[in-house]
Queue: 3 jobs
Job 1
Amino acid sequence: GDAHLLVSAAGDVARPLYSPDGKQLAFVSNRTGNAEIYLVNLDTGALKRLTIDDAACNLDAWSADGKWIYFSTGGRDVGAMQDIYRVPSTGGTPMRVVAETYINEFEAAPSPDGHSIAFVENGMAARQWWRNGHSHLDECEMWLTDLDTPGKFTQLTDPGAKNQWPMWSTDGKTLYFMSDRDGFQNLYSIQTPGLRYSEDPDRKPPT
């Protein structure tokens, strides 16, 4: 069929994500010079800006109930490391969800029930940085955090590979993700909640 222009601006538009009810589209635009998150109402064309940040905002996901939009930005951490925030889809003040200093946290994936978030982390690529006996350069580990218990983290993947793009099954019992642990980027799954992919009982989650 014919393509219809939804958003027009003097800048780039990227990362469109439908709201759960299909009535709105979240997207990232640099129309003001910095990558910020916007919403467009698909029925009326009304546009709303959700973020104003000193660094680029990366759109991650909608919550299943459509009340929150999750994103990552490096505007508040040391060395422009990314932290994960969420902002009400109706507008308001963004709130930090995961923000550990000197670590990139990104690609947030809220669980269908809204109680947990799977996310990806790695360290500072410009400087070799170590924790728990291994370095974070190109590696990406996947973690689970409990929104009802701040500071509670569960490590889902072993170090030594790039593990990214978590996505939940609709029943919330399985997480799908990409990993290059076998030398190629392939798809894996892990059962949730509370089960660690790692078999090492001594590895501790971040605090």
Job 2
Amino acid sequence: MLIVTNYTAFPARWRTTDGVTGETAIARSFADFRRLGARDDAVFVVNGDAHTVMQLVLARRLGLCPHRPIVAIDLIFRRPSTFKSRASHIFKRRPLSGADLYINFFRDTQGLADIYGIPPERCAYVPFKVNLDPSDVATALRSEDYVLTFGRSMRDFDTFFAAMERLPLPGAIPEVDPAALVAHGARFTRPLDALPTNVRRLSDDGSSRAQLDMLRGAKLVVIPVVKASFVASGISTALNAMALGKCVIGSAGPGMTDIFTDEIIAVPPEDPAALAEAIHRAWTDDALRTRTTAAGLRMAERLGGEADLVQRLIDRIAASFG
């Protein structure tokens, strides 16, 4: 089998855990997918690029590219909420739902079925990975100075701020551009000069090193997600925090309570009182925090890094189309 993909971490030659072998061809454009898909045993595997998925689905229907299986990995789906997005959804829904397999990093696919018409039988859950470098994690000097929240996709900073105003604890967020966060579906309605007095802003240049520095200084890592989210939001942040031995508090919903159990402390989304109570409990209850941290660390170590994720993806793709 030939995997034609834009996921450059796939090895040129691969072997599944049960011994099936195959090759990878890297496609950097739609034209590459069409050309490389000429082999009869080719499978199109598109990572995180909804536009290319739609192009391949439409081209396949019109006979403009080889009729090969299409696998979509980790597409970013959003609930249409504005007139423009609802109008666009009418035209995008059918080609976006035309792939043969959707590999997601979350289990609860009800939103994909309800909003995009993607049935559960065309969805597969594959566990995600730790994104931080293992050597950096191993040598990081930890401290427990603040309650941290960060990230972009569907994050609910408003609820975090409202919760922190109820608590006599130090909090932190990265330096952010609120407008850019809103573009990723986040809630951040406060001016930067009106944040809670106990929440400071940490230096962040967007690098893995900056993320490591923020996480290693946290006592708790909070991942508040808006109610409207129906896909994974915050898994990477959670696993990175767990790898550093940090206690994670997350909003209940897809991408959190459908994949984590005792590895996190779950709270209802958009509920400042419940979040404040969970933060206070985790900050003061050493046994709870230690127990949650240990479970999270075990999961992070078990899931590993990118090479482990790629192997899981290859195994799943080969099992479906090999």
Job 3
Amino acid sequence: AAFLRIGVFMKRDTIAAIATAMSNSGIGIIRVSGDDSIDIVDCIYRDKNNNRVLKAYKKNTIHYGFIYEGEELADEVMVSVMKKPHSFTAEDTVEINCHGGVLVMKRILELVIKNGARLAEPGEFTKRAFLNGRIDLSEAEAVMDVISSKNDMALKNSVRQLKGSVHKKIVEYRKLILHEIAFIESALDDPEHISLDNYPKDLSLKIDLLIEDIEKLLCLSENGKIIKEGVKTVIVGKPNAGKSSLLNILAGEDRAIVTDIAGTTRDIIEEDILIDNIHLHMVDTAGIRFTDDVIEKIGVDKAKKYLKEADLIVYVVDSSIPLDESDFEIMDMIQERKCIILLNKSDLNSEIFLEDFKRQFKDRQGDVIIIRTSTRENTGMDDFEDAVKKLFFTGSISSDSEIMITSLRH
């Protein structure tokens, strides 16, 4: 009964909110949705002839006019009228396109609320679209994914989900399964007229193909997660190995201070990097070594903490000096983790060779990639990009028609 009361309340009350960003811009939009949305806006809207005619307008039309507070002109507007079920929420909806000043938008929203609407909760328009059957849950989730997309692939995938790509695929699976269930039940009820000769073999083939298709989607789910959320990447290494220089090269600007003095980086520096449509949330950490400096020690402890939470570890090694205890400590910490080892300062005489690390990680060739780089001469960055793709992406990810699931719920 409580659920039914909530459902009735959800359908009957009218909600309103500013649908554009709360900042000064050319245009701002106030969206009003619910059974009384047209009547409410009609109370404050007048056309160019000063008439209240909003209720007379046809559905899916836009009209020029003015918003008034009493007899005082509030703004010049364009008003869109969408009648149910042909709107995003499947309810009567009015969108007021006004000038994009924050004060103007707030004033018009207050007028709408004064005349009977209530302020919408966060995401409530999408929630109503879902509850009214306008979109399914995967499409509702895709709305926020479109807004928060960090790269082109994430945006394209979210738009496909918004159009129902995941929903259509699941419906296709379900339809196939229900058809076979119905056939089996019919054969059990009427064995004299429905033959099951060779049916087990045919059914087994269909199920195998279905399982193969589903497993392919599940296999690509890790790609979807990475595309949507990005790769949490932590740069580790000893002091003065070139960690901050690497971050600056990838960011395309001087985000971290770089000097010849070991231990310059004391705190965590974070930066979002886009590499060939792959979003990396990079964290530059303090150099890991034993130190009596209290502040540097805090930075080292933070580096170890972030290292445990990383999706990808970029271990920067100064190849111009021999390995020491700090290097072996780092190698112990990155065991069982996806890692790219950069043998940096390859422009200098090398004291470390690829074979030294291959022996250390001989059982983990699939999860550890070793590259020679020079941050001073900006070499090895293409190999680094290829290594990220190899570690995280399964198969091709460039197909515009590909369906990719992006959440644990999927």
